[in-house]
Design a protein that fits this description.
Layout (H helix, E strand, L loop, with lengths): L3 E5 L3 E3 L4 E6 L3 E5 L2 E4 L3 E7 L4 E3 L2 E4 L8 E6 L4 E3 L3 E4 L3 E6 L4 E3 L13 E3 L3 E6 L5 E5 L3 E13 L4 E5 L3 E13 L1
Length: 182
């Protein structure tokens, strides 16, 4: 049951001041069947055959700007994919380069009320570049909320979208710049 180069059945929590470099030739680069939390440090997904980061339950980045992590992802699949939970970005410097979707909360069935596939951006700096046809820089199968942070989006591909929210989208703070081609 190896789904990624760095794989765990349980939670993965990154903290400290070190650097992790991951290259995946056959699957996801970093993958958890539970949740992934990045508190600090530097993560470089140099290349991923599938998703750069793939998690089931939740993906959470940052806590305080003073210890904000730096994450760089280069992936053929999604940059960050949370399958049955939400994505929360509070601080950090995140760059995603992908052919598919950039950041996605992907639970589609919506039959389980306890699963909330929403995306919330409270802070940090995000740069998302997608180049594939119908690629979405940010995709939430529930709500999208931005209360802070700076987001720069560049999508190139027919049918591509900057932000796609299946339910409500709320922008109450921060900055968003989106450039779309195709």
């Amino acid at each position: 049951d190896q789904k990624g180069t760095f794989f765990s059945e349980g939670q993965i929590i990154f903290s400290g001041t070190g650097t992790l470099n991951v290259t995946s030739y056959g699957g996801h680069a970093i993958c958890s069947d539970d949740y992934i939390r990045v508190r600090s440090g530097k993560i470089n997904v140099l290349a991923a055959a599938k998703d750069g980061i793939n998690t089931n339950e939740m993906f959470r980045v940052g806590r305080m700007a003073s210890s904000a992590p730096v994450i760089t992802i280069n992936a053929t699949g999604d940059g960050i994919d949370c399958g049955k939970g939400n994505i929360l970005i509070e601080a950090g410097d995140i760059t995603v380069n992908t052919i598919d979707d950039g950041i996605v909360a992907s639970y589609e069935e919506l039959t389980d009320a306890t699963i909330d596939p929403s995306i919330t951006i409270r802070g940090g700096f995000l740069k998302v570049n997608t180049t594939g046809e119908k690629g979405m820089a940010i995709k939430s199968n529930a709500n999208y909320t931005q209360t802070g942070g700076t987001i720069q989006i560049s999508t190139k591909g027919n049918g591509s979208k900057a932000i796609n929210s299946e339910k409500d989208a709320a922008f109450t703070g921060g900055k968003l710049t989106a450039i779309l081609e195709g």
